[in-house]
Amino acid sequence: MTAILELVDVEKHFGRVIALAGVSIKINPGEVHCLLGDNGAGKSTLIKTMSGVHQPTRGSILVDDREVVLADARVAIDHGIATVFQDLAMIPLMSVTRNFFLGREPHRGGIARFFDFGRADRIVMEEMQRMGIRLREPTQAVGTLSGGERQSVAIARAVYFGARVLILDEPTSALGVRQTANVLSTVDRARRKGVGVVFITHNVRHAMAIGDRFTVLNRGRTLGTAERGQISQEELQTLMAGGQELVELEDSLGGTV
Amino acid sequence: MNTETISAAAAATDERLRATSALRKSLIRPELGAICGTLLVFLFFLAVAPNSGMFSLEGVMNWGAVSAQFAIIGVGACLLMITGEFDLSIGSMIGFSGMVIAVCATQLALPMWVAILVAFALALVLGALNGFLVVRTGLPSFIVTLGSLFTLRGLTVYVPITINHSTIIGGLKTLSDGDWLAPVFAGKILHPLFVWLANAGVIEHFKVGLKAGQPVVSGIPMMMVWALVLVILAHILLTRTVFGNWIFASGGDASAARNVGVPVSRVKILMFMLSAFCATVFAACQVLDFGSAAADRGLLKEFEAIIAVVIGGTLLTGGYGTVIGAALGALIFGVVQQGLFFAAVDSSLFRVFLGIILVVAVLLNTYIRRLITGER
């Protein structure tokens, strides 16, 4: 299987700070690749490098086995790499349909460019249903949705507009149990459509629930990639924490972390 | 019961959502506050001054014309406010544009239609300048347009005093006679219809005086026509077009909108230009109707426009609002201002009322908006 997106020995320096010190990662179609790391491990820098916001200082980025330069976010999107950042780029006062198509509105009526609400509303309802989200109506304001629903709408939007790689920045970090389950099932639906998902999290439990592959990032380096079934939750947790320290602490906490 | 049946039941209906009736759904709309306000105001005057002539055709035309004035500038202020910006220079722009028309027509001896077009061109440039300064410098539009408020008003006083030794320039009536563009702003339409209505006995004739024999209402003033046309066009633009979606987005979250490719700066500059355009429509109608321009025209109109818009349910910080609401806000304004006169109440009470209704309307609108948008 060829990877859609591949990073080879990518480094990113900000002045004297080395944020990424050699990261290699492969994203395959139809797989959820969990990227785990503690705060400061370089997760944000890595996402921004994959989505074209930052350019790597060293190393190469390959899309469909061909080296590319992701000069900015637009170029990344043109390559089918879509990122759902934590702020979701959604406007709470506006309806789901208005948000879903913002910047890419279907229109008719020639130069007058009338927003084709009939078509837009229909597409939104279909896509939401496909992603397992129940909307009351497409005219509902995004502000009335729960955090999990908003996350799912953002994912559905990215998939609808042709994302082949979907980068999700801690999509479950602020959610309750049931909402997390909903978002994870939306991620699963995207996976079944053949989308390669990069799932960034520091919650090992959420990663284990959905991931096909796990890559642990620590101090700007990848500590290797494991496939599902090759690694246990405890091992991942230990890797994330960078070795012994947490284990010692864990003993005194009675294994509750 | 196992977990699957629980989630299946939850999927069918969310037990925490109350069923909403069709009536409730049709009532909970952004304009609800303004609709209630309008009804209240009409009921009030029907009770207080039923036989004052306020609800005769003549009376309706009277407060209708005043409401139309507010509606014209309200349209520009409304769309601009939804993009998240203010224009405090509306009133000064009214005075300035009127003075430009008068100076061009009298001092520069340009044909009236050229004078009008010059005023519109200048207003659009000044509007664009306001917008450009705001999006480029990132300064609040409150400050930038406050600067324009003083600059334009100062010029509007300085120019006529320097060239004419007076703050009023008159004599425009004769200059606009026979001009092809002037009737678009001054005068009335449907005059024959009203003559016919009067002859048919539906409306009354003047009994005595200069106008004896003519109908008491001789037509629909162009100011009302402009108000109606602007309100309808702006409503369609805002609610039905792609550009309308960008207007909401620019005010709702400018950076989110930019990230998905909405040209936020262009949208904002265009709305500043629309605001200046509306102010100039107001000025042209007024100057050509009165036959003169005065340096104090349009004083405080920016606040009245903003109040009409806010009463109409538009959010002061942008991203939410309706043109229909702003038009109803203008209607409330006009009815009350003229209604107090019909009811023989001192006109200073107008301001008392204004202050009260502003706060009450915003409270009500905030509540309604929370219902619609789930804001907390």
Task: Indicate the topology.
The complex is a heterodimer of chains A (257) and B (376).
Chain A: E1 5-14, E2 17-27, E3 32-37, H1 43-50, E4 58-63, E5 66-68, H2 73-78, E6 81-84, H3 96-100, E7 107-108, E8 114-115, H4 117-130, H5 147-160, E9 165-169, H6 177-192, E10 196-201, H7 204-210, E11 213-218, E12 221-227, H8 233-241, H9 244-253
Parallel strand pairs in A: 3-10, 3-11, 6-9, 9-10
Antiparallel strand pairs in A: 1-2, 1-4, 4-5, 7-8, 11-12
Helix pairs in contact in A: 5-6
Chain B: H1 3-12, H2 22-27, H3 32-48, H4 57-82, H5 90-106, H6 112-137, H7 141-164, E1 168-169, H8 172-176, E2 188-189, H9 191-199, E3 220-221, H10 222-240, H11 242-252, H12 254-259, H13 264-290, E4 293-294, H14 301-311, H15 323-342, H16 349-373
Antiparallel strand pairs in B: 1-4, 2-3
Helix pairs in contact in B: 3-15, 3-16, 4-10, 4-11, 4-13, 4-14, 4-15, 5-6, 5-7, 5-13, 5-14, 6-7, 6-13, 10-11, 11-13, 14-15, 15-16
Order of helices and strands of chain B: HHHHHHHEHEHEHHHHEHHH
Parts with pLDDT < 50 across at least 5 consecutive residues of chain B: 1-16
What distance lies between the first and last C-alpha atoms of chain A, to the nearest angstrom?
Answer: 37 Å
Total of helices of chain B: 16
Q: Summarize the main sheet of chain A.
A: 6 strands, mixed
Shape of chain B: globular
Name of the CATH superfamily of the domain at 5-90 and 154-241 in chain A = P-loop containing nucleotide triphosphate hydrolases
Strand runs of chain B, count: 4
Counting helices, strands and paired strands, the structural category of chain B is mainly alpha
Oligomer: heterodimer
Task: Please compute the radius of gyration of chain A using only Cα atoms.
Answer: 19 Å
- List how many beta strands of chain A DSSP finds: 12
Which architecture of the domain at 5-90 and 154-241 in chain A would the CATH scheme give at its second level? Answer: 3-Layer(aba) Sandwich
CATH fold category name of the domain at 5-90 and 154-241 in chain A: Rossmann fold
What integer is the average pLDDT of chain A?
A: 85
Under the CATH scheme, the architecture of chain B is: Orthogonal Bundle
Q: Percent of residues of chain A in helical segments?
A: 25-40%
Structural class of chain A: alpha/beta
What is the succession of H and E elements of chain A? EEEHEEHEHEEHHEHEHEEHH
